[in-house]
Amino acid sequence: MASPSTALARALRGAIRATGRGGTTAPGRFLLGMEPEAIRRLGRRLAGGAVLVSATNGKTTTASMIAAVLERSGTATVRNRAGSNMHWGVATALLDAGRAPDEVGIFEVDEAWLGRIADELDPRMLVLGNLFRDQLDRYGELEGLADRWGELTAERAGRSQLVLCADDPLVADLGRDQPGVTYFGVEDHTLALPELQHAADSKHCRRCGHPYEYSAIYMGHLGHYRCPGCGRERPAPEVAAERVVLRGMSGSRVTVRTPAGRTEIELPLPGLYNVYNALGASAAALGLGAALDDARAGLAAMGAVFGRVEHIAVDGRDVAILLVKNPAGANEVLRTLTLEEGALDLWLALNDRIADGRDVSWIWDADFELLAGRVHRVTCSGTRAEEMALRLKYAGVDAPIETDRELGRSLDTALAGAADGRPLYALPTYTALLELRDLLAGRGVAPRWSE
Amino acid sequence: MAATLRVCSLYPELMNIYADRGNIAVLRARCAWRGIGFELARASVGETVDAGAHDLFYMGGGQDRDQAAVARDMVATKREALHRAAARGAVVLAVCGGYQLLGAGYELGGEELPGVGLVDLRTVREPGPRLIGNCAIEADLGSGPRVIAGFENHGGRTYLGEGERPLGRVLSGHGNNGKDGFEGVHRGNVIGTYLHGPLLPKNAWLADRLIELALGVELQPLDDAMEDAAHESALSAAGL
Questions:
Q1: CA distances from A246 to A191, A193, B67 (A)
Q2: pLDDT tens-digit profile of A255-294?
């Protein structure tokens, strides 16, 4: 029997969904308003425990991947959707908890909310992917965030399994001298970049302050590093991508080594960043008891994740939606786009709402220079469209750059101006993505995103 | 025009937290479009600078730990050269964390970071939240009052010494300390400000003015339709 507050919050969610909107946060806000400890109470209904996934980039995709693998192995899951990953998003998701035996909660959690939600949910596992500069106006400096994660992982020692990215020094350090750590990482040197990208953030050893020496850099500050001062180095991962063949927007083939053996994964999501997500998800799912073949098959069957490489047909044209929200993530999207043949048709929507970060500085830290000479036509939209357009001008994009803050009209401009038979790549920030999905749903070309 | 703008970027790998390379990119492009040469040097930890070899010194913001290392190093290895460069009229542009190191010192978490003393100011931490948000100020860099738009995000509060001139008057936002209504510092060609965003892409006129001051030339206008639109966008974000 549901508690009165849960029943009311569910009713609110039903009413919001009936209006055709997502309803991913308001029921949770309402619930927490009536019952501040609701997450703690509802979390106890998860007989299989809770798994929290956090990272600057990739938490939505990684959480979806873990759930896909667990569901393939017959485990019921409860999870938050549509990137709604703060307190109220988790509370909304927990409205569904307790409906199946051995159910596992898989929650992606905002970096800044991780400590609070871990305290409430007593998770059996923490899956931590990467830390990059993101929304400095909201999170503060990266070092401070890493310190708080350090306190959390120390406090959770022995109570939560840790699944950590070995290639991000800030994240790998969280598992030093801790029990129950599984590391994952990439070990294919053919993918290494020639030098550290500008978006690399953690370039100095946190123990002794020396700059790391890298024998391979895969993205941002992720790679194979060693401190020449104190000798601290990348831990050897238990789950590793031994060979990665990137196939542009269509995905990749990854040979993964795990404690349960080797497997070949045909990953339908593009880019090395999704390889990292798949490795984290594999390590987590294996740690939760899934079989290796379920991991392989579950990842191979991954559909689009909300706004993370969705393809939607609009007016007969393929619109590929790729969320961009910070320099490191944007760089990986741009790098993936440059693997495509021919000149690109682009629609970029830069918003500065609170969930995007009010500070749009970050566009100058992303390597939009990768687009120079590669663009057929670009349309900029969103609340800061003009500043996005200017960024492209100084990045050396010499194609026509249109600017129109109004999302729907600018999308129509972009669709009309794109080359015949070519896809339109839509790169929105988070709230622009929500608006875009509402817009496309309103036109009847995409489903509502609550499902 | 045969001139060349010689820029020295101070601690670029440490002091770059708010997209500071955007400022350099704008200086570079606006020189290139006018046929002005552009040279970019860098000076980091342990490296000295040649006071006569650069027309413009740039320093951006950094995380607390990096800023502390930079403060000590800058006083030890670059202080004298920066004073000589400023004395001969080189432009020094310091943004955010760099700005906090221009003066007497920065009291940070019980520790006093040294400053290079190019201007008379002190920065302290006080109780209260970080000062964060879109910001606009009115400034006069010798070509009449103009508006500078940007984004500020600082825990430190900066107080100018008596007789020291601020860069501008706050039209919207917090400014140096959230109290006195002023922002930044401006003495000779030494400019400090909390406004990032980055600063120069949002204010192309300021980029041009700095090039003029650094080279002692007068620039011809460019087609700035996109720059003007971006400036307006940043201003409206600040509520103007």
A1: 9, 14, 39
A2: 999 999 999 999 999 899 999 999 999 999 999 999 999 9
- The burial class, CB within 10 Å (0-12 / 13-18 / 19+), for A141 is buried
Residue contact A358–B230, C-beta within 8 A: no
Domains and CATH numbers, chain B: 4-237 (3.40.50.880)
CA A395 from chain centre, in angstroms, equals 26
Q: Residue B8 catalytic?
A: no
Contact residues of A toward B, CB < 8 A: 133, 136-137, 140-143, 198, 203-204, 209, 352, 358-365, 383-387, 389-391, 393-394, 401, 403
Selected for mutation to probe chain A from B31, B63, B66, B67 (highest A CB count within 10 Å) is: B63
CB atoms within 10 A of CB A228: 12
**All domains in chain A, ordered by first residue:** 4-14+21-300 (3.40.1190.10), 308-442 (3.90.190.20)
Cα nearest neighbour of B227 on chain A: A390
Backbone angles phi, psi at B136, to 5 degrees: -140, 140
Q: To which H or E segment does residue A341 belong?
A: none
Q: Which pLDDT score is estimated for A451?
A: 38
Window from A11-25, A81-95, A345-359, A420-434 with minimum mean pLDDT = A11-25
Query: Complex ipTM, two decimals?
Result: 0.96
pTM of the model: 0.87
Place of tokens 């010194």: B57
Nearest chain B CA: its distance from A63 CA (Å): 29
Output the pLDDT for position A14.
86
B96 labelled catalytic: yes
Q: Is the pLDDT of residue A133 over 90?
A: no
Size of interface A-B (CB pairs under 8 A): 86
Question: Does B69 sit within 8 Å of A364, measured CB to CB?
Answer: no
**Top-ranked range on mean pLDDT: pick from A90-99, A198-207, A399-408:** A399-408
d(CA A375, CA A320): 15
Q: Please indicate whether, in this complex, the C-beta atoms of B17 and A133 are within 8 angstroms of each other.
A: yes
Alpha carbons B86 and B78: distance in angstroms, whole number = 12
- Asked if residue A410 lies in contact with residue A379, where contact means CB atoms within 8 angstroms, the answer is yes
H or E segment to which residue A396 belongs: none
- Are B226 and A386 inside 8 Å of each other by CB? yes
